[in-house]
Amino acid sequence: MASKMPETFPPDVSSRAYRIARTVVQIVLPFLGGITVIGAENIPESGPVILAPNHRAYMDPPYLSMVTKRQLRMMAKEELFAYPVLGPLIKALDAFPVKRGAADRGAIRHAMDELKAGHVLGIFPEGKRANPGTLEPAEKGFALIARQTGVPIVPIALEGTDRVHPMHAKRLFRARVTATIGKPMTAAQMLKEFPDPSKDALTIIGETTTKAIAALMTKPVRILEVSSDAEDTSEDASKEQEPQTGHKNKWVQPLTLGAVAVIILLVARSKRRR
User: Is this model's pTM higher than 0.90 or not?
Assistant: First the structure.
């Protein structure tokens, strides 16, 4: 049963901490190669919406923040909140934890509350990083949130973040990133346009979203099937070689770490002023 959404929503105002962090990211990303955003007009200027990008690198969220000036409320794996510096930082930016590999009802309720407040919710449907050239199947939790709230889902293809920060790499590389944004579609529209009696509603929503992301990619990708060994194709797989397409620069890593330090200091200062 769908969760009842309000008919009107309060103004979606970004927090001071988020605005500061986004400004710093906006300054730093050109030094990492920059980002090209295609289809930004497909993101609603107001009201609740789910941004659903593919996930290939830990650098995805900063790049995702560049596709819209509206504040993103990101769902992130709970392990990230345990890090001494990163945890408090992403919490200050209104990210919230989710337990992977389990039905985290608390995280689902939190996500729905964010949408009921008229916010932009950022979720990686795959739930984990995938290797280049592949897309992991969408998690049922993502589809459940989309179906219960009925808000628009905007598919986004992020390409190039895995060259900036390859999986398991200990340093950053300089590479251009492209974010291609597709047309929004609700879960109800997906179920109406792509009916399949052999599949449950959540599977149809997840598969339709994943196919929409794949269609936005500039290079063909393989959508993986749900299987017990699917873990072997993602972030838990064996370490990869560093890419030859990115350009290594000695100043990239210090610059990024310095930017993170600046964000932390500014966010802390912002919170003290409240």
Answer: no
